[in-house]
Amino acid sequence: MSANREKDDQVQQEKEQPRRRQARGERRIAQLLDAAAAVFTSTGYTAASTNAIAREAGVSPGTLYQFFPNKEAIAIELGDRLMHEMRETYGEALAPVDPATPLDEAVGAAVDRFIAFNCEHPVFFALMHGPDIPGRIAEEHDALHATLLSRIEDLLSSFLPDAVPADLTRTAHMCLGMYKVGLELVLGHEGVERDAYVQELKNALIRYLDPLVGDRPGRPDPARTAT
């Protein structure tokens, strides 16, 4: 019985070793991606280097190369993970709402969700809007942009049920453009100034949409949105 038990223990240990190695590898990858996010955010993608990323992670360049062949591979992996999380974010933030929902409430909730994501992951803005991002990231960002516009149209249709498709698309483009400009200002400030810019962004979107929405249940009080 003892021999069988020892054999079973050995088999169990052999099974656990690959799992432990895999877990260590996943932790190391996460460590490298966190370091890359910090470097890309502070220096931009173009100026970043694998040596700087390894240094930020506290590992040797040789250790980094065990997991990623170059800087582009790191950026692509980081971008893939961020875009997956962003898709989950806009899926929650841009779902159609009850038409009776106040406009300022709907706009505020969507803006808050997106601002929170970008403040938590500032590298997303650095990667997606840099001048020399890898081609695959640019392609996936274009696809994300198209889907995001479609979801904004879905949300707007809750407030503009009679709008023709061309008008709805144009309005969605304007909203997204205003958001991107506002986001850059938001990320460029901290503390109370950041909060103030977030509110200015909400106000700008509400003031743009309010005349389009017109009289409807839940229409916000203009005096409320002007504060």
From TrEMBL:
UniProt key word DNA-binding: yes
Annotation: DNA-binding region: 49-68
Pfam family name, one: TetR_C_22
Region called Disordered, residue ranges: 1-26
Domain HTH tetR-type, first and last residues per copy: 26-86
SUPFAM superfamilies in alphabetical order: Homeodomain-like (SSF46689)
Keywords noted in UniProt: DNA-binding
Transmembrane segments: none
Cross-referenced PANTHER family: HTH-TYPE TRANSCRIPTIONAL REGULATOR PKSA (PTHR30055:SF226), HTH-TYPE TRANSCRIPTIONAL REGULATOR RUTR (PTHR30055)
Name of the protein in question: TetR/AcrR family transcriptional regulator
